[in-house]
Design goal:
This is Peroxidase. With 319 residues, the chain is mostly helical. It has 13 helices and 2 strands.
Length: 319
Amino acid sequence: HPGLGYGWGNHGHNYYGLYPEFYEFSCPQVQDIVMTILEKAISKEPRMAASLLRLHFHDCFVQGCDASVLLDDSAMIVSEKNSGPNKNSLRGFEVIDEIKARLEEECPHTVSCADILALAARGSTVLSGGPYWQLPLGRRDSRTASLSGSNTNIPPPNSTIQNLITLFKRQGLDEIDLVALSGGHTIGMARCVTFKQRLYNQNGNNQPDETLERTYYYGLKSVCPPSGGDNNISPLDFASPKEFDNTYFKLILWGKGLLTSDQVFLTGNVEKTVELVKSYAKNPALFFDQFAKSMVKMGSMSPLTGFVGEVRENCRRIN
Ligand code: HEM
Ligand SMILES: [Ca+2]
Ligand SMILES: [Ca+2]
């Protein structure tokens, strides 16, 4: 029986009942279909890879990886899409819809939206030049969403290092996962409003963040004026915003992390995260390997399996 995660196909691993061969018989084309649509979307707009990677993260941190993030407002549902971290920020829903529609044609009522998010995150990483990993599957979709969970569990960009460690610990993720997964910021963009405080008033004294490297600071000010321009965007890794590589960590060593939550790995007085940034900056293979491991770990957080939850027909609403 699909979904129970015992015996066949599990090869002795048990990510809470998820296993890579879950769709081997019920939808063997799933991987090809996902990759075809991702290739098209990402070649049209490279940033889409980043947006899809982030969607999986924002799903997993709220009720686990159950596609709660995809539900629209309705009579039954208060959508997570309107939370502080998500509103005017999350992207890629149309690509998920396209994948889902295609999969409903090929393998009706079979592939969950939560698994589509995990597949899209892995595929987006690979297509941006990052690592591939064996992806445990078999997540089912929630019949609920949590706006409050979205507001409280997802770390804000001005977080202190302690705050980041605490919020990740709460999900069962440690400092190694925190630093490696934040390496996802090697691709994609952030809006001015998420880092503006660093430019004009980091500590309530109307001064810039002194950990911000000078020339980078002047460049950011030109993108992000003191008033207005909140939706102007800047790359999280300006050296290679479309390339999944380890330059994110090199930039942090040079004082050129974009968000406070990036730079504090070096400046937050936690020796462990300082060492991790240095080793990932030096050794891209080490970063790739740990990113893959931590993505599997994050992707296995509190999944719905077996007969719990459902496989949505449309990712935006419950059946
Ligand atoms: C450690 C805590 C984290 C914080 C505080 C954080 C914060 C942010 C913020 C503020 C943005 C910009 C949003 C906007 O401008 O609207 C962003 C973008 C992004 N984040 Fe994170 N993030 C964190 C962890 C992660 C993780 C774990 C991943 C994935 C593994 C990730 C992947 C991304 C990606 C790829 C983007 C760019 C999205 C795009 O261009 O559409 N982030 N993040
Ligand atoms: Ca979720
Ligand atoms: Ca990069």
